[in-house]
Each structure stands twice: as C-alpha cells, then as structure tokens.
Give the backbone structure.
Amino acid sequence: MQALLTTLVCGLVVLTTLWIKTRLKNIPPGPPRLPILGNLHQFPSGSVISTFDKWHKKYGPIVGLSLGSQTLILLGNMEVAKELFGKRGRIYSSRPRMVMGNENLTQNKHTALLPYGPKWKIHNRIHNSILAAGKTQHYTELIEGESIRVLHHLMHTSEYNRCYTRFTSSIIFSLVYGKQLQGDEPEFHEMLQIAENFVAAIAGGTWLVDIFPFINRLPSFLNPWKRMGNRFHDRAMRLFESNATHAMGTKAWNFTKHVHAAEDTSGLTDREVLYMIGVLFEAGNDSTSTVLRFCTMAAILFPDAVKLAQAELDAVVGPSRLPSVDDLPQMPYVSAFINEVLRWRPITPGGVVHASSEDDIFMGYKIPRGSVLMFNHWSAHLDEKTYDDPLSFRPERWLENDNLPLHAFGYGRRVCPGQYVARKTLDVMIPRLLWAFDFEAGYENGVRAKIDPYNLQELGALLRPVPFPAIFKPRDEARRALIDKSFANRDANLDGILNRIETAISRGSEVK
Ligand code: HEM
C-alpha cells in the first residue's frame, strides 16, 4: 500500500514538473528557475520595484518568471506594453483570478478586478459616460473652487496630507454623490477606511485561498476567507447604498442620478450598479492625492525647477490673479513640471496586473494563455533608453522632446477611465501651488527633516512617499491676501455648480 502511494506521489510530481516545463518552454528570458518552485524563492519580500528593475536591466524589456504553476511576464518599456496591451488588447485585457479580492471581498463587483467580458464592458461604458475627456472639460469650475480651499488651508495648517486627501475626495464625492466634503464627515472616514482596508487586503501577500482555490468551497464555519469577505462586502455595500440614497435626494445633478436616469444598466443588479459607482471614490481619491504628495516632495528637493516654473507663472499670470487651466498652453515649463512629477514617481509602479486569454507568440517568445502580465511603470518611466538621465527630476526633457511617452494611467482597453479627471485636477492644483508658495522641508523634533526621494512605501499596486514634514510659505503678501479674498468670495453653492455642469453636458457645449 505504502509503495503504491509513493509511486502515485512520485508520478504526480513528475507529471507536474513535465507540465510546468512544457508550459515554460520558450517563455521570455528571466532569472534561472528551480523545478516546480520556479522563481518563487527569488520573489522579493521587500522592494518589488527595485528587484524587477534589476531583472529588466539584465534580461531586457520583457522578463518571464514562473511562480509554481503561474507564469508572470514583466513589461519594462512603453513599446512592449503598447504592442501587447494596445495592439493585441483583445487577448491581454483580462485580470487574473483573484479569489480573495474579486470573489470574496468585492463579490465580483469591483471594476478593477473584473475579468474582461460583458460585465466589465458595462462598467467601462458607464464610467466613460461621465469621465471621458469631453465631459471632464465641464468640471473645471468645481475643481478650481476646491483648489482655493487647499491654498487657504495650506496657509494655516502643516497637515498637507489630510488637505490633499480631502481635496481629491471632495471632487469625486461632489460629482458622484452631490456632496462636498469638509473632512470630518463620518461617511468620508468610512469610505477612506474601506478603500484603505481594500488596498491592504489585496496587498497583504498571497492568501491561502488564492493558492488553493478549491478551499473557498468549504462551508462557512470552516472558511474564514469567505466570512471575512462577507463582512467586508456588506460594510462597503451599506455605505454605497446610503451614499446613493443621499445622492438621489439632492436637488442638483450628480453621477448617481445620471446613471439611474440615463444609462442602460441592464446586465447588472441594483447592488452591482451601486458598487460600480462607489468604486470611483476608491480608485480616485488616494491616487491623485498621492501625485500631489510626490509633487510636494519634488518641489522641496528641486528648488531650481520651482523657480523656473514660478518665473513662467509670474510672466503669464502675475501676482494679482490665480492661474487657471486656460493659462497652461502659454506655460510649457509648468506643463512639463506636471508631466515630470507623473514620470519621476509613478504612483502605480506595477500598474494593475493583466491576464492573457489566449496562447500568443511575441518577439519569438511564447506567452501561455492565463499568464499574468505586469506593465512595470517604474522601470518604463526610469528607462535610460527612453529618457536621458532618468533618475533626475528634469521638466526640461519634455520641452526638448515633445514625443516622450508618459503612461502613468496604463495602456489599452483597461487604461484608467479617471485619467482626464485626474489630469485636470493636477492641471488646476499644481500651477496654483507653484504660483502661491515656496516649499521647504519641515521640522522633526526641532531639527530640519532630510527628505529622501527613495523613502517610499510599496503597498500592493500603490507607491507612496513615507510621510514627511513640509512647509508651504506664501511667496508674498499680495498672494496671501488674494488667496484669503478668493476663499471668502468663492461660490460655495455646490448645487449651482452641478446644475451648470448638467446644462453644459446636455448642450454638449465646449465651455470649460
Ligand atoms: C493620478 C491619478 C491616477 C492614476 C495615476 C491612475 C492610474 C491607474 C492605472 C495605472 C490603472 C490600471 C490600468 C491598467 O489596468 O492597465 C487604473 C485603473 C483604474 N482607475 Fe485610475 N488612476 C488615477 C486616478 C483615477 C481617478 C480620479 C479615477 C476615478 C474617478 C480612477 C478610476 C480608475 C478605475 C475605475 C480603474 C479600473 C479600470 C479597469 O480595470 O478597467 N483613477 N488607474
């Protein structure tokens, strides 16, 4: 009996090894693999981005790895990402199976985790109905109004992190639920916590249930992953429902009303619709505010670039009015500064992973069906073949070459649908910050802090700077007075702003 068992186990091991070997034959080059384990033992436990970057430097722009039975393909420059996610998007636009993330925590309702298929297409169509470039042009008034609050707060508080989070959250919350956020509302904190818990749960390493998906079929009392998923999902659902109820009861236009009145949601349940709307807050608040944190870091570390941007702002705008997005075409250096922030520290260094749905051959290599593909934004944005002196923060590079690629928002069919809102938010806020303030490192225990541009936190798909103290010094009294006056006179009537958005959208007019 024991001999039979040993033969069976040995047979299974040999078959698995042969299967993996066949599957991995001719995949793109990568670090040497062990039988069965593949590259699991080399998989970084600390900084993923620096290990992947080393592999790209050694093996080229496309690196093949094996994690047990899973094939992982890293894409390290724009050309390969464009080819696979762009031209061959039909087969490279899905997501890998995520038992914990997709099936348990979000119960097949989170846009970013859905496989490519009919349900994702409905989410994407509806998201684009409100976030496309043509719609986003009408949100300038809302974003500019919120930006004045940021300038005013930064003159009175050193808590710029909270200030940026409130700013980006309030823009999305106003559009989606028709309510501006002051920063102390319970629903705001609950939304932030759900988003944070979601990122932490997805980032917290591989779940046992993802390695052995069959255990997810165990009954509830033996299945802590499902129980945790149910609790998490119900909590998010309750909040999305109560936010939507508030949104439907407001006087003015908002995204929730638009979806219910004007979009074809057949194919989704009512709860899926609420979730699809709620996802926008999760995806949109931390991302854009993190770019502002990196912008602040760059502004402290590179005062010469700030001076050049300020000289341009002074020439085009002067001290007696705030810059607006209409000024940007006359301010190439300031526009380049914004691009450079997005390039220098990509906030999603590995993008969001894709999965392939067919076997494919690329550059002579095999990419087996079901491979996981990661567009490595960090390596792509710091690639010395694409960018001269890539580690330096040099806005000038965008003026020297207007064909430089920038793909902070991903590529292909899964490209970020919020990219235009995000970019508009940065196009409003960054010039205003540069116009209003000089930037300095703050103090820690009475000593001037040393800001390290490599002091970064990798949390799942997100890259953030480790919080650092910063001082925002108004550049002169005239600017200080103008910010105070603009804050006092700002139009705080959100309903009016939202109604103007609705009118502009329904006319399809080109007003900003
Ligand atoms: C600077 C800010 C932002 C950056 C850098 C960013 C970046 C990204 C990236 C890299 C992806 C994955 C693309 C891929 O799979 O290839 C993504 C997905 C997504 N983003 Fe953004 N994003 C930002 C802001 C926003 C905003 C403001 C919203 C909503 C209002 C948003 C909504 C989404 C959604 C819903 C997805 C999932 C798309 C899908 O799976 O089909 N993002 N974003």
Notes: The longest strand covers residues 62-67. The longest helix spans residues 270-301. The mean pLDDT is 91.
